Each structure stands twice: as C-alpha cells, then as structure tokens.
TrEMBL record:
A GO biological process held by the record: bile acid metabolic process
Record keywords, A-Z: Oxidoreductase
Enzyme class: oxidoreductase
One term of GO molecular function: glucose 1-dehydrogenase [NAD(P)+] activity
Protein name: Glucose 1-dehydrogenase
E.C. designation(s): 1.1.1.47
Alphabetical list of InterPro entries matching this protein: NAD(P)-bd_dom_sf, SDR_fam
UniProt organism field: Metabacillus sediminilitoris
UniProt-listed PANTHER family: DEHYDROGENASES, SHORT CHAIN, ESTRADIOL 17-BETA-DEHYDROGENASE 8-RELATED
Family classification: Belongs to the short-chain dehydrogenases/reductases (SDR) family.
Any coiled-coil regions, as ranges: none
Length: 261
C-alpha cells in the first residue's frame, strides 16, 4: 500500500527540535524524501538519527543555515533542488521566542533578532520556494504562526509582531499563488511542550518552571500542554495532496486556547 508522500520531496526548517523534528519524523514514516534545515548541526544529526531508526532507507539531506540570512535561505533551497530536483512541500517552521519584557523595556536589538528569524526568515523561505513551486505548477506550504499571531502575547512584542506578520504573509501568498496550483496555509500552535516553550517558562521562573507551566495551561479547556507529535499529524495532513484546497487560512492547534478571541 502506497503512502501519501511516496516520491514527494519535503523541505522543513527548524527541523532540529520541537515541531520541526516531530513533523520530519512523521512525514518520513509516510514515504517522503526530506531536506532538513536548522541552525544547530548537532540537532539536525539527531533528527536524522531518529528518522533512520524508524525508516532505515529514508533519503535525508541536512543543511545548516541561519534562516534570517537571505543567502543562506537561497542556499538551502538550491541544495534541495540540486539533490532532489523539486520541492513538493515546505514546512516553513524555524522560529525563536526572544526575551520577555514589556514593550517599553523590550530591546531594539532583540526585536530585530526575533523579526529577523520569525518574519524575515519565513518571507525569504516563501520567496525562493515559491519560485520553484511556480515552475513546477504545484506545491504546498505550511508556515508556523502562533496563537500569538491571532491575539497579543504579554511581554513578547517581537514574537507577537512577527507571528502576526506570518499570518499576513500566509493569507497574501495564498491569494497570489492559488492560481498556480500552490496552497499556502499556516498553523497557529498554542501551548505545545517544546524546548522553546520550556525555555519560555524558565525565563519566568527558572526554579519552578513546571509549576508555572501548570498555571499557564489552566485557562485552556483541555488543561494540558499539547505534544509536538499532535502538531506533526496536522502538518503532515496540511502539506499533503489531501489538503490542496485548504488555502490562505490559519488553523489553530491549541486545545481551545483561542476560543474566547
């Protein structure tokens, strides 16, 4: 029985941990050839190890890159095409949270850094992958936004601004490129227990971050953190041909966290 990703080439940024790693593993199990991008080469190697343990014959390209650097983005796109000849699906996922401070105390350099990765990086990725997909006449892109891109997030000006920007880019590009057989959508994760979220909780209280986490999810109707694997199942569906008619939208995966907004 064939899998929905047999023969497909999937490019994933931020693949060294969290949502990117979980999605890479899930999509590899479904037959994809993978091009995996991350700033941390050791983390990329760990992801590849996990994939090959699960799928021994998987084809995996690793590219170390800073997604906030336009030339680095062009390079990972070019390497993917040179290796696999095409890009069928793109999980444009790499991101950082940044430091937490009220807006008046939020550092200018910190703001630029977060925008550079979370918004510029997403734009660069879309710009150069869309060129490839337009020539192919097909493709699917999923950008990682956030519940913070749907509503505000206290003490995280850079993060909230960047994720609102991702939502705008997603909707805009979906409108522009649907005519070329390309769908563009975003996911808006809520409280998912990833290394980034753990780091966020430790910023608030390094010694009692787990207790802070319990308080953080209390308003959520499901009263828990989501798992990266739960997001990976959604990403695998949205990037597949089964979701081609889902376009220019943002899909929350947050246990109902955004229900009151």
């Amino acid at each position: 029985m064939s899998s929905r990703y047999d023969g497909k080439v999937v490019l994933i940024t931020g693949a060294g941990s969290g949502l990117g790693q979980a999605s890479a593993l899930q999509i590899a199990k479904e037959g994809a050839k993978l091009s995996l991008v991350d700033l941390n080469s050791d983390s990329l190697e760990e992801t590849k190890k996990l994939i090959l343990e699960a799928v021994p014959n998987a084809e995996v390209l690793l590219v170390t890159a800073d997604v906030s650097n336009e030339e680095a983005v062009k390079n990972y796109v070019n390497q993917t095409v040179e290796t696999f000849s095409r890009i069928d699906a793109f999980f444009n996922n790499a991101g950082i949270e940044g430091k937490q401070n009220p807006t008046e105390d939020y550092g200018i350099d910190e703001f630029r850094k977060v925008i550079g990765v979370n918004l510029n990086g997403v734009f660069f990725g879309m710009k150069y992958v869309l060129e490839v997909m337009k020539k192919q006449g097909s493709g699917s892109i999923v950008n990682t936004a956030s519940v913070g891109g749907i509503r505000g997030v206290g003490n995280q000006s850079g993060y909230a601004a960047s994720k609102h920007g991702v939502v705008g880019l997603t909707r805009n590009s979906g409108i522009e490129y649907g005519q070329y057989g390309i769908s563009v959508k975003a996911i808006a994760p809520g409280a998912i227990m990833t290394p980034m979220v753990e780091g966020s909780l430790k910023q608030i209280d390094p010694d009692n971050w787990q207790e802070v986490g319990k308080q953080f999810v209390e308003p959520n109707p499901m009263k828990r953190f989501g798992k990266p694997e739960e997001v990976a199942y959604l990403v695998a569906f949205l990037l597949s041909d089964q979701a081609n008619f889902i376009n220019a939208v943002v899909i929350p995966i947050d246990g109902g966290q955004s229900y009151k907004y």
